[in-house]
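Inputs:
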Amino acid sequence: MKDKDIIGLYFARSEDALSETDRKYGGYCRTLTYNILGNREDSEECVNDTYMRVWELIPPETPAKLGAFVARIARNLAMDMLDRFAAAKRGGHSHTLAYEEISECVPSNVSVEDAADEHELAGLIERFVTSLPREKRIIFMKRYYHFCTVSEIAEQMLMSESKVKMTLSRTRAKLKDYLEKEGIKL
Amino acid sequence: MRTPEDKLLRAIGSIQDEKLITSTMPKQRRSLFGTERHRLSFVTVEHETVSKAYYIRRAVIGIAAAALVITGAVMLWRYIRYDYVDPDRTDFRGAAYSDYEDLPVLPENGEDDGTGRDNVLLLTIESGDGDSGLEYRVELLADNVYQISEDDPYMLICDPYAVVTDMNTGNEIGTMYFFPGDPLPIMPAKGVKYDNGGRSMDWLRASVEFMYDENGTHPLFITQYAAKTGGMYTTFYGINSDGELQIFTNLNIDKSILSEGNTVGMELSGTNTIIANYYIDLKREITFGFDFENIFIYAYKGTQPPEKPEEPHDPVAGPSELHENSTVTALPVQEKFLSDRLPAAGEGDALDMLVCANGTVYEYISYGRFSYDRALKEARDSSYSREDTITELINGIKAVSDSDGALQTEYLTLLQKAEVRGYFDNEPITDTDFYYIGDNYMISVDNDGRGNGARFLQRLDGKYAWSARALNIRKALELLWEKAAEQPDTYGDMSIVFVTTMMYGEDYDFGLEVIVREGTYELAAYLSDNIGNMEHISVITPEEERAAYMPIGNINTDAHGNETAVDSYNWYGHSFLACDNKAYREMSVHVITDLQKFAELNNIEELKNIDLAELTEITPYEDIFDPVLMPYDKQGHKFYSFYGGGLWYIIETLPDENGGIAGYEVYRQDGQMTIVRNEALWFRLHPVYHESGEQYIIDRLDLVNVTFDDGGDRPMLRITPKPFSASESLLEKIIKRFDFTPYYWEIAQ
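Outputs:
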């Protein structure tokens, strides 16, 4: 079913909207949340929360791309859930590694007290990602947005893991330089 | 408080570009061959990142694979159809053979006289017989050599010939031509343009074979000219008792061959061999023998050759006893001439020429697979004898053979003199160039996809037409313009049309039709007197003119009088079709249904009463014609015919931009009715049958030309589209002349 039709079901308040959403994006959401949370049950719970959130938001919202809309919600919910689990030191393997990797991007003038506005930061990162060459852009997004593992990315992109790692490393370095030039303090 | 890393990850998660998110989203993996993953990039596509890419690439791969398969099949078919020669067919030994693939890249040797290199040595064959000590050298040379394509060094235009030299004495014995006694360019030389994807590029395949007889005492030289598209002309040379090179023109045929119904005679094409001026169907497994003492060939089937005739047959007049045999065609010299000059082609293609040379109203224009005899049989004018036809044809061919690209340029130059308004965009392939003469006449030079283009008259007025042959076109034009300049009131707005029908390849057959205003008979006489070859001009009466636009249906019957097939065509060959009775009942229903609706709407009795049971389906165009040869097929025209009320009807479907049917043209056998129906598509015609029942009226005069013919029981309005709006004055004339209602006039505005 097309996104437009699924959204139409939401507007019609038909519960079929949820099953259709799950049919189309459920696999992706589970993978994404599992990569963050590292636990099937938590992932499943997070996906269910995602659908509930989508149900609440549509209407009135009419996302242009339902997939992106669902992904964003699932991702944020998973990360929120991860925060709650932080004390227990639980975290998805992929997310944990991504977390460690992304630390390389933190500008050297880090000061947690000088927190940059999250929207401003998101806008800068989006511009940065958009400016990347296609292949690097895809790898970056797969890794840090969708939290795919390096091996998964390598397989999907038909390239070696070492190349993926090298690409990610260089992209992180670029991002760091970029954020520093923009005067970002985190 | 979130850590910087957490903030970064969340910021990444806040990216708003939905396309970026969805396009990088991992998805279910798919491959062309199931669900397994393949590392090969052409198998596992990048659908994980851009889903459309998967389908696009898969489609591309599918198309490419299909193209490969089709290409392979075509190549195989062509090889089997045209190229395969049974190597065991001859008992001779020591054969040396070369075909065009052995030709060198545009030879450096030879003399360039500005029309291509002459005396270019393409190939040398030297062979001797150890027992007899004979040694001969055959050199294949060519004049007027051009390399046609930079990409393919073997595509040459040339006039080939071969020189035989006795290596023992060093004496040159003689020259062999690919047609006896009269060299003919295998490719047309000198200035013929090949920017149209012309088939002639695919033609050249000249070969020379050289062998000795079984005893090693007599050399046999064979020139062979074959078209890749079919047809093979073989000429055998031997050395006579005077030591001269001589053609084996005499033929002795075992009568048993004839008794089995084999065709022996002249044939223009196909998988047959022309030996001198005789043709033998190779499929009959006929064996050739060579009498080197008397320089004649005998043909037989089985193991024993026929007895040697006391006197060899005259190669020109043809063997009289064979002539008397009902299964043998004795060939007059004209036909020999004809066949020599017609390029080896697919069956029947040369008949285009024949028909146009007819010069009568009912010219048979054939692009299809028809035999020579059949074409002759179907020449419509019974008063026009076979001999006359052949003679005229020969003259026409001579003219064509003498012509070159410059001649065509001259035609166009002359045409441009006539340009009063209109445009000439010089687009060679797809467009039509228009020339207007006065207010009432128009010439359209209708490119046919091969760049040579048919020339059609779109007459707005006038009752009489002449047609003339190629030889006279240029002169006729000159005379006409001269006359027009002298007497502009009388001849200033005469109209001229070229009717060009194509031969199979590079040669043209031009017909010239001259339309003058009513009553100007004297111009016809003037032209015929000054052109000096009246047989190339025929005056067409109004009835004939009208009939010329109608389809002609021929019902072919078998020996028992049963219908076997139908051929139909109109004068210009546009609506050529053929159908088989077997498929009669399967005509596309929607076409007829739609047509009947149209008939009902417009109260056209002839069509309303069509009996569906009598409908016929015509073999799809593409099944009849080589699509390369038939540009109309490319344009999506389809032809159907049906028989009703004692008359044949032809329906030509007109394509729309989307490959659908934009409308129909319906022709009736007696020529009394022509309906043009295009529904706001192609040329956006929309004819309406007038309430008076006397005229067909169209509502878009700005896009069409109209010719009215008031002869016959029912007036006929011919509607011709044109690509630009007619001037107001022209429209006014049309309106006034035909008394269109204001309603239609308003629409026209």
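Remarks. The CA atoms of residues 735 and 745 of chain B lie 7 Å apart. The first helix of chain B runs from residue 4 to 13.
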